[in-house]
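Let's practice the habit of predicting before peeking. Look at the sequence and jot down your guess about where helices and strands might fall. Then scroll down.
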Amino acid sequence: MRSSVFSRRRFLTLGSGVAATSLLGGFSAPLWADSAGAMPGMADRIQTADNTPGGQTDTSSLRLAEPFKLKLAINQSAICIAPVTVAQQQNLFSKYNLDVEFVNFGNSTDVLLQAIATGKADAGIGMALRWLKALEQGFDVKLTAGTHGGCLSLITANHSPYTSLASLKGKAIGVTDMAGPDKNFFAILLNNHGIDPITEVEWKVYPADLMSQALDKGEIAAISGSEPFSTRLLDTGKYHLLASNMSGEYAHLSCCVIGVSGALVRKHKPAAAALTQALLDAHSFAATNPQKVGTEFMAHALNTTPQEVSAILMSQAHSHHAVGQAFVNEMTQYVTDLQRVQVISASVNPHQFAESIYANVFA
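Done guessing? Here is the structure:
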């Protein structure tokens, strides 16, 4: 892995600040973007998290009395899901008496969400900025936690005249999907910087393998993408990071979220709680053991290396977990932001909507 990957990580770390480091540290901070006091019933079940390096919260009370089988829908080759993919090898599901079967849905997170809603899977992990619009349509899926931050990058060529978001006004940005979470996020970020992402920026769709050529030819000013696409571009040494969701206020928001079927929440809430905690444990493990996760992920990965996986995991915030009111607040902010860029209907009440799609399985 070339040094540009680690330079990117340094940029992200500096952007998120020292405060983020202290907030996101620790092995298993299952719920501690929120406090037990804000979650009725939680204090009786889980003790205060130990946020010191290597510390682990006692979550033994979440272990189910009887084995419980369920299907978890994921994109098994996605690097940000690597912590979940290797959770079986770390016995993080059996720790809670869960028998988890992975259902691999490839790259389509929309299909993944539909699978949960229609009973083809009991739960899954997807990107908040992809799922919120779909959940507005009334899928019978509840979100239970945010798993980590990171994933999204805006990249431009070295020595280009585009040195800030403001400089992209009137320019074209390349995307692979007009409804993608990266497009939604950078539309929000542009809007926050006074640029109308609908009328003052042109979004051009390209296949991922042609995106850098379009940038080199000057057809677009920047590329919007996620991992590992972004890291691989940066690793060529020809491009640099213009913006990401690991800087500013968004460094403290969840990128990916856990969704469980409404039926699982209604009929087997303890199982939903156990699964949620196991998944948060998996991401906490990755935060402190990225190299080990990178190595073990090779059993499932396509076209990557342990070094690339661990570098990407280190550039993300896998210790950031949000549940309870903290999670509702994060989703409220996203919904409000998506309204401003005309993705979610203006008639939706952001906080009420966030509360309606959240299930506090730990209460």
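How did you do? Residues 19-150+254-357 form a domain with the D-Maltodextrin-Binding Protein; domain 2 fold (CATH 3.40.190.10).
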